[in-house]
Amino acid sequence: MPVIVLATADDDSLSVLDAEMRRRYATDYEVITCQSYAHAHAVLDGLRRWKRDVALILSFYGPRDREGLHYLRRARSIHPSAKRVVVVEWGNFESRGPVFRAIAEGHLENLLVRPERPRDEEFHGGVSDLLHDWHWAQGTSGFEAVRIFGHDDERTHMLRDAFARNHIPVGFYEADEDSSRRLLRGLGLEDPEFPVLDLRFTSPPRALANPSDTDLVEAFGLTTQLDPDTVWDTVIIGAGPAGLAAAVYAASEGLSTLVIEREAIGGQAGTSSLIRNYPGFARGISGNHLAFRSFQQAWMFGAVFHFFRWATGLEADGDEQRVQLSDGTSARARTTIVATGVDYRRLGIPELEELSGRGVFYGAAVTEARSMTGQPVHVVGGGNSAGQAALHLAKYARHVTLLVRRADVAASMSEYLIEQIRATRNVDIVHNATVTGGRAVDARLTEIEITDGISGTEQWSPCHGLFVLIGSSPHTEWLEGVVARDDAGFVKVGQDAIGDADDEHHLRHPLETSRMGVFAIGDTRRGSVKRVATAVGDGAAVVAAVHQHLAERIPR
């Protein structure tokens, strides 16, 4: 059982919190209560030696206990993956300064207000959210809807990442281990082509050897063909924050809505371990958690989702549009919303590209973090995604080095992340640094070459995991010749697209492209602010433009 450790020198708070935690969580967790911090530190050390999973560490901070924050700071180095939270007493506002400062520096996840009545659901809601995020990050649910047998390679990594981000419980089994071979023989597979997927949720269970995306779509029952006679009010390409927000608003307002998603909901934001500056989530929320909630919301409003497909073309069809899809089908739409987002740029270094999935990863810090336990890790990038990845990896890796091409990160990274990185002992930032090479042993990354951008000097550094989160490359090549784009491929919208418009007399909406009825939102449009909140704002605003277009152009 995972462990919850509670410690405080405040007798009243210890009594209240001990009763609350045992009453709610003792069935599924071992709850350990410590009346002194010396005892608590000894317990945490013992749990580490015994390799016990600690899910949550609670302490108290108030007039009768001023040591709780210091204890949580020290606890971080003993059990870095555990969620750490301080409990405060209602009305004790003088404690807010030290508590908020500790949160800003990343020493604890958040604060909770001590229960003052039975069934304090606000308190327990906070605890449940923390435990949910811990379990998702650990991958310790115990239920495996899909088992993946394979090696460290790009295809296996892509499948693990896609399933995890789509909230499909998955277990990974190294193909060369004896236990894996026995399980494969039990599936009737002696010498299969890897990766092998064992689908435990089908009746009967079935195994797929090195399946294509089409095989996966069929196996998961996602092959429902689009009715060629159906004309959707809007077809949304992409299920990142912008696309999901557009789907929620469009479907909730009665528009027939189809969402096409190539891989996983959430886009780049879905890979973020913790977003702390999204309005309304004071405790922070993982990108995947936020995306999955939005997906469920849109789905319940009636939006239809098609996964493992992508748009390959867009053409006019009278007052309608026809979106060509990768499976050879097409969708008819009155309006189209392009929300395909961006992808991290590749390094383009041959010896490192060959190690993709075998020590070199683009994004995916959440999926691969546990495999980095005790290892030296490097993160390339200077934006918020890189900062969040570095902090999450630091919970498992021996040391994390953040490599930034610029001389400063203040222009590209939020201040709260910079503060947390500076306060995290096993994370360093190296400025003016570029990765220029790599070496491997047994086809696994072991070293990278780092070049100083000012002096030009080169040095080799041990590296078990290289996580690349640099730049942005928009997924808009399928719109070539259809809508106006800039030289980097970002879609022009609003006044920016007037000169390229198909109808110069049309009063263009700020999110409308050079083609009427086609809109671009989120990171895919030129001039976007790379933040989740602004992408969601685009998704909400574009639906008003869709309504306007439908009212003006198409009789209802």
How would you describe what is shown here?
- This protein is of the alpha/beta class and 556 residues long.
- Helices cover 31% and strands 24% of the residues.
- The strands form six sheets. Strands 10, 11, 12, 13, 14, 15 and 26 form a seven-stranded mixed β-sheet that branches.
- Strand 22 (444-452) and strand 23 (458-462) form a beta hairpin.
- Helix 2 (37-49) runs parallel beside helix 3 (68-78), helix 9 packs parallel to helix 10 (287-301) and helix 13 packs parallel to helix 14 (415-423).
- The longest helix has 22 residues, at 532-553.
- It is globular and about 75 Å long.
- The protein starts with a strand and ends with a helix.
Q: Could you estimate the helical fraction of the residues in percent?
A: 25-40%
Give the distance, in angstroms, between the N- and C-terminal Cα atoms: 59 Å
Structural class estimated from helices and strands: alpha/beta
Low-confidence stretches: none
Q: What is the tally of helical segments?
A: 15
Number of beta-strand segments: 26
Brief account:
By secondary structure, the protein is α/β, with parallel strands linked by helices.
Secondary structure elements and their pairing?
Layout: E1 3-7, H1 11-25, E2 30-34, H2 37-49, E3 54-60, H3 68-78, E4 83-88, H4 96-104, E5 110-113, H5 121-138, E6 146-150, H6 154-165, E7 170-174, H7 178-186, E8 196-199, E9 206-209, H8 213-219, E10 231-237, H9 241-252, E11 257-261, H10 287-301, E12 304-307, E13 311-317, E14 320-325, E15 330-338, E16 342-343, H11 350-353, E17 360-362, H12 365-368, E18 376-380, H13 384-393, E19 399-403, H14 415-423, E20 427-430, E21 433-441, E22 444-452, E23 458-462, E24 465-468, E25 473-474, E26 518-520, H15 532-553
Parallel strand pairs: 1-2, 1-3, 3-4, 4-5, 6-7, 10-11, 10-15, 11-12, 15-26, 17-24, 18-19, 18-24, 19-20
Antiparallel strand pairs: 6-8, 8-9, 13-14, 14-15, 16-25, 21-22, 22-23
